[in-house]
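go over whats below:
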Amino acid sequence: EDARAGAASGGGSAMAQPDEPHPPVVPSCPLPSKTCDVVPTERPRSCCGMAVAGLRTAKYHLPEWHRRNAGVCYEAYTAGEQAERGRAEAKHLVKHAAASAQRAQGYSKATLGQRLQDIHFWRVELQKEIMELDAETNLLAAQKLRLERALDATEVPYSVVIDNLECRERRQPPDLVIDEVEKQLMKEADLIRDIRDLLKRTIIQAATQIRSNRIQKENCELDWSDKVETYNIDDKCVGYCTDSTDVQYHPSSVKFEENASTPKSWAQFSHDNISRAEQEKLASVQLRSLINNIIHDASEDLRMQRAAVNEAFDSHCRELDDAKLRLESHLKQILKDIGDEEANIVNLKKAIRDKEAFLKVAHTRLYDRSFRPNVELCRDEPQFRLVSEVEELTVFLEALKRKLMESEQNLKNLEETRMKLEKEIAVKANSIFIDRQKCMGYRVRYPVDLEVASYQ
């Protein structure tokens, strides 16, 4: 029983082994008692008593003496035999206790060795998981930095689009229309705003995942540090032996702590930590892949929309150039028409002056002939001819004056058309300057590729 108590005290700090076989115990049994028959005394009893009291006081009969000696010898023999049996039992107990203690210590050492292997296994697994989770966290942090750089890179395109829209607001009313360029610019602005919102949400998601990774990494590190400390303790315990100088009694440690874990819960705890770390790592890998896709898709969308806007600008600028060329061609023709019309007016005025001179001559002739005296005032052929000439000249003068008025009105219309054409040409030139010089010139600062910019 002492050997079993010692074995129990030696394994109190380790996990209980309910199925461990106990060493056999030799029950102690008393030697068979040897009974001796004592012959009752047959000495005569004195009836007078006091007569021989002085001679018989403290004296025994010879049989009593023999019996006394036999009893003492028997007691000595019994005591010696019992002592010998005790020594044999003690020797056997010492031998059995030594073997049992050696066996118990060996079994405890073996279980400690197995425990060290288990601790080493989980320690290595935790260390591996910590390193992988730390590497994954660093990769995710790099992806988060890419998101932030990509978000910063969208500021220039957004400012370019807003500047283009503001510049095109300075177009003059005839060209201040919602054309295809305007629609594509508005679409580009909406796209950039959506991309910026998506990048911001993804940055927040990445920061949350990084925080989760670090929390789980800290949990694994705490578990790992406990495993390292426990491994050192158990490794130290494995090294203890009976020759160790730093062993001593610790009676208070021979017990099970109420908050002590079981081997199953102990292994499950590390398994759960590794499982949660794997889940966080998998979520981090998926988030990194999502970030790559987001940056790539955003870059492609911006590139395609930028190409669509540039194509719309080129097409619109070509339309403006064609319209400006047509207007300039019309203006050139109008200017020629104005010159011709001015020359025509000059010719008409000269013709009117010439015809007025002829009319004055005819009028003067008729006036002078009206002073012919008496019968000389005759309706002769010259008179009819002069009247006919005046009438004819009057008709031509009226026709020339009407034509002059028409020509002057035509010249006025031509001048108004010229002013309109010049204004339209100026409007087109202003629109071309805004679209080609201000807008397209400023769009040169547009980032080449958002995906490339995220690495810079």
